[in-house]
Each structure stands twice: as C-alpha cells, then as structure tokens.
Design a protein that fits this description.
Belongs to the NipSnap family. The chain is α+β, with helices and mostly antiparallel strands and 223 residues long. It folds into 2 domains: 93 residues, Alpha-Beta Plaits (2-Layer Sandwich); 111 residues, Alpha-Beta Plaits (2-Layer Sandwich). The protein contains 6 helices and 8 strands; from the N terminus they run βαββααββαββααβ. The protein has an 8-stranded antiparallel beta barrel with strand order 1-3-2-8-5-7-6-4. A hairpin with a 4-residue loop joins β6 and β7. The chain is globular and about 55 Å long.
C-alpha cells in the first residue's frame, strides 16, 4: 500500500541508522574518521551525520546504488575486504547497540540537492503517512514541501519515500545555516498563510512526525 510514482531509473538509496552505545560514541566517531574512506571506495556515500537534537548517540548515513545488483556486488566486495573488516567492522561492532536500514527512492519531483555552502546543520524530518502511498497523499505532501521551499529560509536536500522498511514513510532532509536561522525561519513560516493552508491539507494524511537536527561528520560529502 506504499508504492507509487517514483523516479524512472533504478537508482535507490539505502538509509542506514546506527544506535551507538553512549560510552562508545567518541570511539565510534574516531573509527569512522580514520577508516570510512575504505568503505567509500566501494560505493557512493551521500551523507553521514550524527544526531544533535531529537535523538542521542545516533548515526545516519545514506548510500546510493544504481540497482539491487549493484548493491549485492558491493556487499560481497565489502565482506571480502580484509582492511574494512579488520580495521572498521570488528571494532565498530562493539560500539553499536542497534542497526536499522531502509531502501528508499527519491520522489519523482525531487532531485538530490546540495547546500549552498559548508558548515551548516541538517534537519531530518520523518513523516509516517496513512496507508495508500503517494496516490493518496502525494500531491498534498508536495504542496506542503513546496510552500516551505518558497519561504526561502531553508534549502531542500532530498525527499525519500521508503520501499523497504516501514512503508508509507517519507524522510525529508533540509539544510540550514545554523539552528537559530532554522528556528527563526520556522517561526516566520508558521505565520505565513500559504504555509498554514498547505500544511493543514497535508496533515490530514499524517500519522506521526519526528524531527532530528543532524551534524555532518568530516568525511560526509554533504557538509
């Protein structure tokens, strides 16, 4: 009940979320900084962040694949990469409490964006929509996103719709120069009649929403 229009090619994105043991977070981030280049040699990393607000000790990363055969080949190569297994996987597993992954597509009206400059923060918003997929709620959701873009206070990075994982989930990633700019922009948006009307229409299809403020790690292509 979640499938619907998506971009025509086979490209998809794997969203991996790690919950790290609080006592091992510093160690895990150091392992990433030292050895994640080994993983990046196998496939394209879109972004890698730690949660600052809305969650704690959480690491989120997005990987791009041409198709499922591409992902299978990459996972096989990683399993056979002794450097990756020895230098990162073995010590990292002792740091991780839980792992979760999703396969998602960009919605057809969204291209993956880039921030206008480095050094900002990212807002990761997860919407759990009512069953029915984009055929039910797609247009209203798009209108709500578009009104926020038009306010100009934030930069849209991507809108991802899940194919594997919890269905009818949409992840929206925004970039802001800093947390205070985001706060003032949201305040102005809430006073914008166009935003209020569009959001009011979209929330009819909403089950729940979660927001996180993310900070990119140094090796993240999206900084």
């Amino acid at each position: 009940f979640a499938t619907g229009p998506r971009q025509d090619n086979g490209v998809f994105y794997e969203i991996r979320t790690y919950e790290v043991k609080p006592s091992r977070m510093k160690e895990f981030v150091e392992l990433v900084s030292q050895h994640f280049h080994i993983r990046q040699a196998h496939s394209e990393l879109v972004g890698l962040w730690t949660a600052e607000l809305g969650a704690m000790n959480k690491v989120i990363h997005i990987w791009k694949y041409d198709n499922f055969a591409h992902r299978t080949a990459v996972r096989t190569a990683l399993a056979n990469d002794k450097d990756w297994q020895g230098k990162f996987i073995s010590p990292a597993l002792a740091c991780i409490e839980k792992q979760h992954n999703e396969v998602a597509y960009l919605v057809p009206w969204c291209q993956l964006g880039k921030p206008p400059k480095e050094g900002g923060v990212y807002e990761w918003v997860t919407f759990q929509m009512k069953p029915g997929g984009p055929a039910l709620w797609g247009e209203a959701f798009r209108a709500a996103i578009s009104t926020h873009i038009n306010t100009g206070y934030t930069k849209l990075i991507g809108v991802f719709h899940t194919e594997y994982g919890l269905l009818n989930t949409v992840h929206v990633v925004w970039w802001n120069e800093n947390a205070d700019n985001r706060a003032s922009g949201r305040h102005k948006a809430h006073e914008d009649a166009r935003v209020v009307a569009a959001v009011r229409e979209s929330v009819r299809f909403l089950e729940s929403q979660q927001n996180m403020l993310l900070v990119p790690l140094p090796c993240s292509p999206l900084k």
